[in-house]
Amino acid sequence: MSEQSLASIKTSLQEGGFKLTPQREATVKVLLEKDHLSAEEIFMHLKQTNPDIGLATVYRTLEILTQLNITHKVLFEDGLARYDIRRESNKQFHLHLLCMECGKIKEIYDDLISDLEKEIEKKYHFQVEDHRLIFHGICTDCYQKRQNKTPELSAETRK
Amino acid sequence: MSEQSLASIKTSLQEGGFKLTPQREATVKVLLEKDHLSAEEIFMHLKQTNPDIGLATVYRTLEILTQLNITHKVLFEDGLARYDIRRESNKQFHLHLLCMECGKIKEIYDDLISDLEKEIEKKYHFQVEDHRLIFHGICTDCYQKRQNKTPELSAETRK
DNA sequence: CTCGTTGCAAATCCTTTGCACGTCC
DNA sequence: GGACGTGCAAAGGATTTGCAACGAG
């Protein structure tokens, strides 16, 4: 499942002059398990196994991992950054579906974007190295729920 | 050029129960001139014509405009939100090219994405209402500059 | 020893809020 | 004179930084 193994990440870290400390290892393990977690969420998970870990360490680790291109930082509209391990499968084709109703984020791997990328490179002479694509909308579940309830919920999505 | 005129925006505001105050008008004018400005940048521009305006007012105005769907708020990876007027032409098809070398943001209107949207709706039963697409890469200018300089600049893009 | 790493607390940055004062019907 | 808007200052929340202590080689 995870072509990005702990071992390969350790190597990357070392090549960058960093060590795989227990805190970093634990952080990476969390990242390997779950995607698009925020720093705070990762911190919470870590607390269970490493109660002494500090939030700052998590941020520092995530910064390093992102610099080394091991991890992918994405800023969501709620102002929170989420982090994903870059796996082989999502290195290129990776997009999010964010439901505006329930807030759930679904992850999609699909190469539909790679065509778009090629188009962009050709049409605009822009060398694409990465992308970030999020669709905002209504997920299947919420759509169905809507059908059964009052038909005008669309505007009330704000706090 | 701007199908979104001051007049039509005034109407939208009033329909939403808001007034087009001088501060709001000035803010809208800035937004009509330039795209993807941050709140701070908009504030700077405004200072020239309305020296007494407060940053908070700018934020409040932007919030209203975004709620009314007049403006589009996009969070960039630097943690700053930028705002664009939603014009007819970019209401649907709107993407950014962010150069990782010089930091410039170029805006593209292209309906390539609408096909993708349809695909997503079909394949994943997700009703798309909006999207946010940014390509990270190297713009034409920087790409050409690179060719003339040392060939290994790729890793040093950090502060 | 030395250097990278850590936890904590303080600092920072962007953004939001509280509040008293203005303004417009 | 009540509701909406404003500027300012303070608060807020996420992230970063300074620093003394720690730990492996």
TrEMBL record, chains A, B:
Keywords attached to this entry: DNA-binding, Iron, Metal-binding, Repressor, Transcription, Transcription regulation, Zinc
GO process terms (BP): negative regulation of DNA-templated transcription; regulation of secondary metabolite biosynthetic process
Cofactor note: Binds 1 zinc ion per subunit.
Classification via SUPFAM superfamilies: Winged helix' DNA-binding domain
Binding site for Zn(2+): 99, 102, 139, 142
UniProt KW Metal-binding keyword: yes
Molecular functions per Gene Ontology: DNA-binding transcription factor activity; transcription cis-regulatory region binding; zinc ion binding
Cofactor(s) this protein cannot do without: Zn(2+); Mn(2+); Fe(2+)
Binding sites annotated in the UniProt record for Fe cation: 131
PANTHER family in alphabetical order: FERRIC UPTAKE REGULATION PROTEIN, ZINC UPTAKE REGULATION PROTEIN
Family of this protein: Belongs to the Fur family.
Name under which the protein is recorded: Transcriptional repressor
